[in-house]
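Progress report, Aim 2. The chain analyzed during this reporting quarter is listed below.
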Amino acid sequence: MKRSLPLAMLLLMSLAPSARAASEADYKAAYAAAEAASKEATGMRNQWTTTVSTLAAAKKAGDGGDFDRAVAAAREAEALAKASIFQATSEKEAWKAMEIR
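Predicted structure tokens for the chain:
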């Protein structure tokens, strides 16, 4: 038991995310991924307005040098864009099940 406690603590510490500030490179990568997903959603004609505003907030934070906030907003915008893509693809065929016959 005495050995397993330190090993468990070591394992937990190795799995815990490191607390570090986001860099400009992190922001640029997150923003590029969000922008690509947003463009894909636009191409499907199903871009959500919240994606656009969240992407704008990420750009504003990045331009202001607040890369932690910019990365968080960019990741949120990417998630919103991916959700809108999922919605568009899932509803592409789902409407047929609701059609009156």
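The helical segments are 4-15, 24-43, 49-63, 67-94. DSSP finds four helices and no strands in the chain. These observations will guide the mutagenesis work planned for the next reporting period.
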